Structure to design on (938 residues):
């Protein structure tokens, strides 16, 4: 029976999971409320960007997602899903448990029950509010109800409309287990956080942590709060108080906060609202600086002593004005009230600002944490580790003693001499420095200043150096300092402490060798100096690895094989490569280089990991030309190319065709065939004769390689395609490249990507080189978005093909990154919308220009004239009589490349039928003149 019940329960669970649905607004439902009303428990309501003038009530457990779900409400985002109450009621009210809200903007709340941007009431509990913007309401969020609620990564901005809770960010009159964590709360006329009521213990288990609270009247007002943590908050520039404990606050911990530049800091008082005295308040490890009236004030009744130890009061001497009047960063108390203030911090150094105020210890001695690139490796077998002191007072030191301990996989590089005194104690005079080996990797280091001179008191410095090496396999070693003793000139103890142990990365294993190094000649878009770029690509053998790329040439251009100085394939080198190998400036896959000497170049690469361990040599690439075979003149100087094979080059070959050449003849630049593989990419195997082999190479390269065009060639369609590369490992980088083909119509284009925020995060965006070559400007309005435009409406639009922009992402988790084009919008020179495609390649263009036979022929009526253009440009298509008279113009003007057709109805330019007879159709293009005859019958 039990087994049957369990099986039925699992079946029901599977049924519930399977039937959970997504309800889309507005594509499926016109309003948010309509979708909520149609939903079942556990469903998701997904709302697109746009403004919805509603007062939504959620009365069942579901997930409510806006367009910016997953994107921090405090950062730059795309178009918002806005729920706007427009001053009438509450944008969103939740009365059920188990509701999650993510990525909305809630505004215009006023009147109704509370005028809150979001109100929790009724049976609301276990509510999660993430990544939302709550602005311009009476209050941002009203957290009432018997259940828990969490607000995280939201922006509460200027919620100051009139109302019962007006001028507050998060407010409540009674609450249980409310968490306000990692939010920004700003510009509220009463308080960013307002938890108050006229009665004791009306708030329990409050957690107010990690928030940025600034430019409010009060940062927080707490009354009747029992069991509250106010920690790691940054409370700044409040015009009244940073925090007010107004009575009835007990078991409250005020820890690791920064209270800075407020009119007043922490006020502990009894409002007289029946909440009772404050008690059991601990104020510790906070920073109180720059406050105008006071850092802390105690007024009214308090049960016992308020403990305020280990805080930084802006001075090594602690707070001033204790127990009486004062100004600035003072502590003021009413008569009969007391606070345990002693034991304050003497240093205001913050070790970890992102984690709240984390004060440094007094006079700490420590080994600085090494960056990951500072490791013990084959290239760095011995590391010199400093043991530093950071002074939080200025008392002169005479001596120190400490214990230095190494983990088992570390050892000193060369015995006790590897522990060396450094300069800090020298400032006081001559010193004695002694090291004792305690065994097991433990060493005692004692140092004192000799004689009457005493006074080592610099703010910071290095006491000693410990030179260590690895004593085991890859991993990490650890070095500790402990048993610290500092003495002043009177041999009195000086307070000191040690920080956490320092980790030393150990990596003595080199990465695998690069196996797919490839060199490719860049065929077009080069300059006119006669040499081309060569692009180098490879796959990184491991994340974080770098590479050094070396080149060597075959040699003896252009004679190559001719004695006595014939070239040869360079021998694969080891590291470091000897001559003739030379280090290039290429260090990233996909980069190009250009050398000024024509030749055939070979490449090798040596990978190195982050620790400097170097791999064996990569594969050696095959020879790659850095010039075009047949590019032998720039039209003015023979033997000097311009990165184009044109009629001038063919003419130079023709003038010397059939010649036999001496071994070192200047005409050897013409001796380009045969090549090693019969292609235009192979190395010429010079045979000292100019013949058919050379003619074939010249003609194959004729007009197929080019220097930069003086005018841009238009594409036949406006289209953007997306390619995503790289980043399989966590922490790796993915590059989303948007490639565009343009007809010259588009002057501006806006692109937006979507992605899986649980797998990748956008880092930045950059314009592509093609866009720059078009005279374009690119701006990124938000992560994953890029807007581009051509400057000046009179200039040509985006034309041709190339990389428009690249957006980089960092992988944060395994899985499908889900990067894809979400939206495209384009405008022409008059700012009118232009249709742009988002997938597929460019259509295939004709290889040659031609005029096809007219059909039908002969013709008694209309005829069809078909033609194809290998490239776009000016085109004139007309009908002529046999005497050469222009009878009818069919097409004249700029036409794009492609296959096209025009109809002729047999009439002349006046619309009259032409007499029977023979006529000619003539096509005039940049590639030539083409004619076809047609016979007209009546």
């Amino acid at each position: 029976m039990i087994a049957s019940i369990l099986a039925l329960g699992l079946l029901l669970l599977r049924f519930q999971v399977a039937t959970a649905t997504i309800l889309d607004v507005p594509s499926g439902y016109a309003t948010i409320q309509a979708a909520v009303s149609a939903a079942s428990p556990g469903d998701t309501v997904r709302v697109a960007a746009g403004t919805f003038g509603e007062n939504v009530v959620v009365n069942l457990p579901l997930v409510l997602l806006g367009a910016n779900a997953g994107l921090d409400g405090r950062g730059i985002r795309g178009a918002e899903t806005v729920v706007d109450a427009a001053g009438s009621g509450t944008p969103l009210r939740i009365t059920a448990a188990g509701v999650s809200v993510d990525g909305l903007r809630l505004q215009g709340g006023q009147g109704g029950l509370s005028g809150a941007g979001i109100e929790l009431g009724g049976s609301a509990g276990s509510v999660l509010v993430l990544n939302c913007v709550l602005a311009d309401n009476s209050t941002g969020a009203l957290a009432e109800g018997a259940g828990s609620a969490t607000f995280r990564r939201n922006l509460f901005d200027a919620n100051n409309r009139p109302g019962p809770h007006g001028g507050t960010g998060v407010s409540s009159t009674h609450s249980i287990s409310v968490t306000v964590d990692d939010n920004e709360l700003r510009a509220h006329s009463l308080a960013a956080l307002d938890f108050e009521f006229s009665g004791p213990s009306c708030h329990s288990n409050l957690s107010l942590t990690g928030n940025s609270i600034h430019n409010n009247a009060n940062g927080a007002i707490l009354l009747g709060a029992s069991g509250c943590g106010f920690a790691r908050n940054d409370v700044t520039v409040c015009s009244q108080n940073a925090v007010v404990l107004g009575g009835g606050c007990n078991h409250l911990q005020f820890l690791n906060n920064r209270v800075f530049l407020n009119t007043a800091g922490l006020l502990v008082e009894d409002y007289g609202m029946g909440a009772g005295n404050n008690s059991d308040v601990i104020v510790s490890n906070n920073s109180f600086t720059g406050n105008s009236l006071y850092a802390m004030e105690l007024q009214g009744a308090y049960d016992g002593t308020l403990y305020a130890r280990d805080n930084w009061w802006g001075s090594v001497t602690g707070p001033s004005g204790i127990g009486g009047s004062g100004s600035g960063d003072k502590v003021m108390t009413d008569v009969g009230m007391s606070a345990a203030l002693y034991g304050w911090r003497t240093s205001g150094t913050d070790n970890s600002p992102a984690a709240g105020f984390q004060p440094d210890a007094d006079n700490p001695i420590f080994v600085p944490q090494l960056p990951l690139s500072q490791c013990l490796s084959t290239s760095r077998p011995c590391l010199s580790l400093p043991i530093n002191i950071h002074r939080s007072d200025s008392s002169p030191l005479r001596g120190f003693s400490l214990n230095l301990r190494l983990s088992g996989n570390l050892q000193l590089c060369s015995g006790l001499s590897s522990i060396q005194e450094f300069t800090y104690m020298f400032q006081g005079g001559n010193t004695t420095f002694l090291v004792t080996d305690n065994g097991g990797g433990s060493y005692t280091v004692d140092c004192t200043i000799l004689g009457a001179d005493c006074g080592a008191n610099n703010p910071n410095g290095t006491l000693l150096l410990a030179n260590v090496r690895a004593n085991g396999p890859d991993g990490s070693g650890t070095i500790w300092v402990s048993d610290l003793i500092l003495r002043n000139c009177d041999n009195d103890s000086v307070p000191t402490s040690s920080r956490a142990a320092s980790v030393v990365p150990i990596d003595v294993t080199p990465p695998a060798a690069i196996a797919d190094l490839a060199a490719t000649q860049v065929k077009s878009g080069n300059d006119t100096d006669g040499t081309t770029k060569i692009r180098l690509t490879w796959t990184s053998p491991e994340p974080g690895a770098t590479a050094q790329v070396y080149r060597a040439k075959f040699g003896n251009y252009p004679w190559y094989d001719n004695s006595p100085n014939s070239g040869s394939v360079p021998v694969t080198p080891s590291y470091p490569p000897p001559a003739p190998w030379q280090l290039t400036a290429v260090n990233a896959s996909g980069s190009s280089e250009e050398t000024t000497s024509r030749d055939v170049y070979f490449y090798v690469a040596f990978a190195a990991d982050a620790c400097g361990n170097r791999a064996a040599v990569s594969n050696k690439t095959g020879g790659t030309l850095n010039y075009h075979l047949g590019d032998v003149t720039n039209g003015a100087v023979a033997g000097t190319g311009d990165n184009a094979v044109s009629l001038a080059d063919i003419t130079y070959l023709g003038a010397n065709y059939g010649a036999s050449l001496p071994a070192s003849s200047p005409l050897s630049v013409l001796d380009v065939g045969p090549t090693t593989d019969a292609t235009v990419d192979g190395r010429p195997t010079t045979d000292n004769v100019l013949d058919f082999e050379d003619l074939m190479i010249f003609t194959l390269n004729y007009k197929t390689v080019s220097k930069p065009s003086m005018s841009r060639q238009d594409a036949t369609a406006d289209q953007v395609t997306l390619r995503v590369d790289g980043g399989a490992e966590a922490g790796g980088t993915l590059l989303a490249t948007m490639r565009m083909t343009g007809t010259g119509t588009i002057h501006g284009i806006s692109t937006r990507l979507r992605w899986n925020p649980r797998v990748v995060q956008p880092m930045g965006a950059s314009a592509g080189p093609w866009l720059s070559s078009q005279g374009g400007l690119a701006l990124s309005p938000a992560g994953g978005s890029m807007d581009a435009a051509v400057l000046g409406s009179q200039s040509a639009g985006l034309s041709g093909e190339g990389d428009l922009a690249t957006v980089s992402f960092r992988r944060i988790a395994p899985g499908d990154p889900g990067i894809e084009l979400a939206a495209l919008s384009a405008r022409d020179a008059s700012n009118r919308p232009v249709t742009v495609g988002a997938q597929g390649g460019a259509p295939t263009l004709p290889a040659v220009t031609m005029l096809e036979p007219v059909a039908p022929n002969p013709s008694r009526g209309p005829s069809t004239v078909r033609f194809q253009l290998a490239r776009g440009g000016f085109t004139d298509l007309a009908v002529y009589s046999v005497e050469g008279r222009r009878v009818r113009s069919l097409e004249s003007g700029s036409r794009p490349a492609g296959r096209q057709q025009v109809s002729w109805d047999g009439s002349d330019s006046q619309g009259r039928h032409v007499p029977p007879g023979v006529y000619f159709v003539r096509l005039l293009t940049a590639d030539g003149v083409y004619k076809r005859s047609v016979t007209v019958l009546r």
